[in-house]
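Colleagues,

Please find the record for the two-part complex below.
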Amino acid sequence: MSSNSRKLQYSLAINEALHQMMAEDKSVFLIGQGVKSPWYVGNTARGLLERFGPERIIDTPVSENAVTGSAVGAALVGMRPVVVHPRMDFMLYAFDPIINEAANWHYMFGGKLPVPVVIWGIVNRGGEQAAQHSQALHALFAHIPGLKVVMPSTPYDAKGLMIAAIRDDNPVVYIDDRWLYQIDGEVPEEIYEVPIGQAAVVREGKDVTIVANSYMVHTAVEAAERLIRDGIEVEVLDMRTIKPLDQELLVTSVKKTGRIVVADGGWKTCGVAAEISSIVTEEAFGCLKAPVARVAVPDIPAPASSVLESIYYPDSEKIVQAVMRTLSNGKDA
Amino acid sequence: MKAYSKKFLINLYKTMVRIRLCEESLVEPILNGDVRCPVHLYSGEEAVATGVCAALSKEDYVFGTHRSHGHYLAKGGSMGELIAEIYGKETGCSRGRGGSMHIIEPEKGMIGAAPIVAGTISLALGAALASRMRKDKRVSVSFFGDGATGEGVLYESLNFAALKCLPMLFVCENNLYSTHMPIRECRSNLPISHLGKPFGISAFRVTGNDVLKVYETARKAMGLCREGRGPAFIECMTYRLRGHVGPDDNIQGTHQDIRPEGEIAKWKRKDPIPRFRRYLIGNAIAEKDELASIEQRAQKEVHDAHAFTKNSPHPKESDLGKHVFK
């Protein structure tokens, strides 16, 4: 089997990136809650402690503010830390080091010191975990100047974006989703980067563009596969990075199809879907044949009951309906 | 009394005088509106930065606060670049993007000062963690005020630093006020240095206006950190002779000091600079003329710093977005 066709699970693609980066660069270390637990961070930290020792694989007390700040501080003096938040809801405790400090540092000191830190937050939706264990908070970080925000949807991107994030001289918020961890895909064995800020065309089509990120890319592809049966050719874009957004690819696709559905796993109001919608309106208004449609999580906290959960998270049916709506120029089909 | 070289003692005096004259040179420009950014003057607290930084090597790290001109100068930052920064000039230490509250000189180990109360404590923690990983014996110093004891991240950082035995020095500058609030109205009435105890951290409380006492304590604490017996904690009892922000104000421009007049007068008598001056002369370490010439040279440095600033350009409008990312 050649290295190009090797399959690897998403979570193990992250694991491989961490192994390779830590072996390559002594300034890389992993810090956060649960990095030596068998279940906290899935199998993303497998074998790291045994290989690199507790000096570089640092499991921590539940002190998100100080621990994240320590990663930022270490970055200021030349390290390349990866700080992990196994449930990104807890990252809210670390807004000060992430936003006030890491995001601003390079600018507010006139470019004197870079902040090469990766802040890794895991979205843990589903499983009746309710409002404080299920939140997808990527839009909050994407709002902040000075932060880059990546959201890989495939094992290939999970590895390549983790490597790019670690090598980047700026703070990068790396957000993944536990729903992606079991997904298999081709992952080269060697070290490679997926450029931050570059979207990808997952599937070509001429009728409607669906723009998605993270887990929603898979939901979008599922919707596209259903729609093709009716002869509707959907183009699926995976943004991969939500800050900075790849405007060029986005606008190119919309200019081709003239119709766009934005699918995002975050809340609708002031979310990533709203931002993408605005960009399309500003940059490609003349090409639009129908209003932009958004498929996002409703502005409601995550419920526990699985009955409610099942209608809370957008599925491919919701995307199909949105596509049909844009095809009828915004009217319900 | 330990025997110190005359050069060492004179340098302490020189550093304190440089800080004081630099700070006082800003009073007029603040009052007449030439300086617009919020400025938190360090006048009165010079012995803390001077004494602590005298115990550091160039390689050691310093993280500061909103009131950090003294830390920056004592760690070796350029006065010209400091004044230029306060005036928002491109030649400022932060290229005019930071102002008085964001000052930095990485080449001298001043990794940055920033005004979110307690916000830089965890950054210093991370620099200490990096030192430990690299085994480079550097110590990371976090300066913070008494008001920072109200922030949870201090306690998280104390715990983590103690847990990992990090080479970190916590320096609390207790000037008795958290902006307008007397610190006794902010926290239970126990010495702040006691905060080290629950974490097993060696902690000291020192007269913060006595530069030699500060230095000696800092040297002891730094020794612990360098020997792997860190972290350490020092509470320096001091007082600001100026307002919280601006020369005499609680809020820059209001010209009201809410502190009791008697209290201010009492602390003026404890001013660290005349105090050390008396020490130097009383112990026949320096003559009055010698100290006067140090003051004159410092005054010249201040003058030159302002002249440098005046001749410096502002940032270009076209560079507004420069430095967001590296």
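Chain B touches chain A through 44 residues (CB under 8 Å).

Comments are welcome before we finalize the supplementary table.
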